[in-house]
Write a structure and sequence with these properties.
The complex is a heterodimer of chains A (112) and B (110). Chain A is mainly β. Chain A is built from no helices and eleven strands. Chain A is globular and about 40 Å long. The model of chain A has no long low-confidence stretch (mean pLDDT 92). In chain B, the strands form two sheets. Chain B has a five-stranded mixed β-sheet with strand order 1-9-8-3-4, with no helix packed on it. The model of chain B has no long low-confidence stretch (mean pLDDT 93). Chain B is globular and about 40 Å long. By secondary structure, chain B is mainly β. The chains are: A mainly beta (112), B mainly beta (110). Chains A and B meet through strand 4, strand 5, strand 9 and strand 10 of A and strand 4 of B.
């Protein structure tokens, strides 16, 4: 069966510091991968998605970036965090014709 | 992707069926109806999806009207653990990201 991992589970970072969140998927090959963010009391917002290694589509222009160095690894990064980057970051994967998306446990980021 | 409309909140007594409605009047012929739920502080959980026919799995049933302009998610015997925000999403299959609205906050009451 497939599993998706995210770490860390929680993170507190100062404004201006860098960020690296990691997501990995096990049990499947060539998945589509997604990064979403949910600000406090808000809905989920798609940030990036990837259909293959090195292929990244950005949905929202901001100070975040994503990379996919390996087939089942998706990384969300920032060089300098803003207060507005606080939120719940969720990674998801999908595969195949049905393309149903399955979400990871999330990383709760607080920028102080 | 077509837009969906859901009531902001609903209550349901424990043990009773929870019927969550969704309107998607602009749905096109090749768009699916997906349902997810998000329990507090967790990632969204896939529930069920369908195209034209009604669907049932171990979690829920999905009833889609004949004109496909609306659907209902049915939790046959709601428990306290079903308290969550439920999202109805319409999308094409294949490599298209999900677009989440505000969903319906379902509160199951003992």
């Amino acid at each position: 069966s497939q599993t998706i991992h995210q770490w860390p589970a929680t993170l507190v970072q100062p404004v201006g510091s860098p960020l690296s969140l990691e997501c990995t998927v096990e049990g499947t090959s060539n998945p589509n991968l997604y990064w979403y963010r949910q600000a406090a009391g808000r809905g989920l917002q798609l940030l990036f998605y990837s259909v293959g290694i090195g292929q990244i589509s950005s949905e929202v222009p901001q100070n975040l970036s994503a990379s996919r160095p390996q087939d089942r690894q998706f990384i969300l990064s920032s060089k300098k965090l803003l207060l507005s980057d606080s939120g719940f970051y969720l990674c998801a994967w999908s595969w195949g014709p049905a393309d149903t998306q399955y979400f990871g446990p999330g990383t709760r980021l607080t920028v102080l | 992707d077509a837009k969906t409309t859901q009531p902001p909140s609903m209550d349901c007594a424990e043990g009773r069926a929870a019927n969550l409605p969704c309107n998607h009047s602009t749905i096109s012929g090749n768009e699916y109806v997906y349902w997810y739920r998000q329990i507090h502080s967790q990632g969204p959980q896939y529930i069920i999806h369908g195209l034209k026919n009604n669907e049932t799995n171990e979690m829920a049933s999905l009833i889609i009207t004949e004109d496909r302009k609306s659907s209902t998610l049915i939790l046959p015997h709601a428990t306290l653990r079903d308290t969550a925000v439920y999202y109805c999403i319409v999308r094409h299959s294949g490599n298209t990201p999900l677009v989440f609205g505000k969903g319906t906050r379902l509160s199951v009451i003992a």
